[in-house]
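lol so apparently i was supposed to do this last week
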Amino acid sequence: MNKVLEVRNLSKIYGPGCPHCIESTGPEADTNLCPHCGSVVAIHDVSFDLFEGEILGVMGESGSGKSTVVKALYFDQAPSGGEAIFFDGDTQHELFALNAARQRWLRNHRFGMVYQNPNLGLNFNISAGGNIAERLLMSDLMDYGAIRERAKALLARTEVLLSRVDDLPKHFSGGMQQRVQIAKALATQPPLLFLDEVTTGLDLSVQARILDLILEIQQELKTAMVVVTHDLGVIRLLTGRAIVMKYGRVIETGLTDQILEDPQHAYTQRLVASAL
Amino acid sequence: MNAMSHTTGGNAYNFGFLDEYAKKEIRRAVLKAIAIPGYQVPYASREMPMGRGFGTGGLQLTLALIGPGEVVKVIDQGSDDSVNAVNLRQFIEMTCPGVSTTTRTAEASLIQSRHRIPERPLTPTQILVLQVPYPDPLVVVEPSEDKRKIMHGEADYSRLLVKLYEDIVQFDEITISHRYPTRINGHYVIDPSPIPRWDVPRLDHAAALTLFGAGREKKIYAVPPHTRAEPLAFSDVPFRVEDFRDAAGRRRACARCGCTDSFLDEFSSDAGEKVYQCSDTDWCDEKLLRKESLRGEAA
Ligand SMILES: Nc1ncnc2c1ncn2[C@@H]1O[C@H](COP(=O)(O)OP(=O)(O)O)[C@@H](O)[C@H]1O
Ligand SMILES: [Mg+2]
Ligand SMILES: [Zn+2]
Ligand SMILES: [Zn+2]
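anyway here it is w/ zinc ion bound
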């Protein structure tokens, strides 16, 4: 299988940092807040690989650093350390060594992101179709008719009513906003997609349909995905492999089935038990 | 002492009102603007003895470029006679001894204008200075100037193009009437100042240098001669200029000179009818003169 992403020793510290930050934080220390300097070690030493067509889960409690991982990889927030290599066909991109323009190019053309908060992924002041058009225009498609066709096809694929293509997403339901976000993320057919708590807060029936959609997309397009969620049900349904995070560190990693059936780490055991 | 800095009739003004240092700074900004077509060059806009928003950006450019022997024309919305144009012209006459002014486009070496480009094609020896209220076309989609600078640097205009997309969705056409975003030399998109769409194609590969001055926003930018100027559009929804055809599909003519290929202003006659007339008064005068002389010859 082809590797899509290789992440090594990723770390992000909010605050000034000090020589004691790392030893004073993490699962053993039972905190991510350095008592010496007050910095937040949001993530430290996070490493994983992602392969073509694979969905990797990132699980853990709120505050464990899950979002920080995908934000760094999607260039929303620069990491404090570590490396990530994106394998795109025959080319390799060392993500954090690229200049801002190259990073923006990758983000617009080769990555997609769906946020928990649709406000972050969508411009609420332009229509659903316009949101998708924006991404297509970033990739230099300049034909209005073609842009519109493609926007409609994407919205149809994500089961958004075509009669709403010209409506503002701020008037949409939460589930529909997520569908538009997914359509937008898929506009350039990216080989890599990040999904951060995309179903959190939605009705269960709405959740189920969106999760189905994500699985269908993965099967159709062979898109590699990193799925961040604190919901073990989502992990079980979507992911083949997962990493478990606590206080910014990866404490367990493996096949999702194994993690859920036979968790090794006491913390994971508690997580799984509480979700039963 | 600098040869240019003589005083005017007892007044302590430097030639061109601005001190030589200020002029040099503006000229440096102009050179940079020419070297990077469409790039908004920041400069230290000076206080002028009139309110900002009355063309002080354009006036500073004019005063920095003007030399003895210059022939200056000042127009406002195509007219030499509007209060704003008259005030600016008088100010230039007062502060620049040895400089003459004209209303004839053909005679002018430097034209300062608000909201129009003269109909008569400009020549390589002429400079057009346009007054600009809002220099940055991205301001409608991005409030942060720092972010706008990055977007310009990367030629990231997708959010501007989405505006056009939304326009077509709503109105079946692009409805921007003035300040039409225009890409210069394949990279920077400029706000060409509130000229009508009619004037935009005349920036493209123009023989004359066009300079843009925004006094309040402290920016200067340029479309150098023979430079590409492309209004943003879609490949299948091309840019169009104003349509001056009547209900029957006939091109309206100027009620005064009869011209059928100029930009027309619309008035209401005393009888309440719509009347159309050239917005460029010099162009209209010239057409009228020619018509009358032809009639004279025929008689
Ligand atoms: N901008 C920020 N400034 C300071 N601390 C932050 C910032 N963003 C996140 N954090 C902290 O980093 C830690 C990890 O956050 P996050 O990655 O959002 O966790 P998760 O997604 O697992 O809930 C949390 O303690 C959070 O408070
Ligand atoms: Mg989170
Ligand atoms: Zn510390
Ligand atoms: Zn006329």
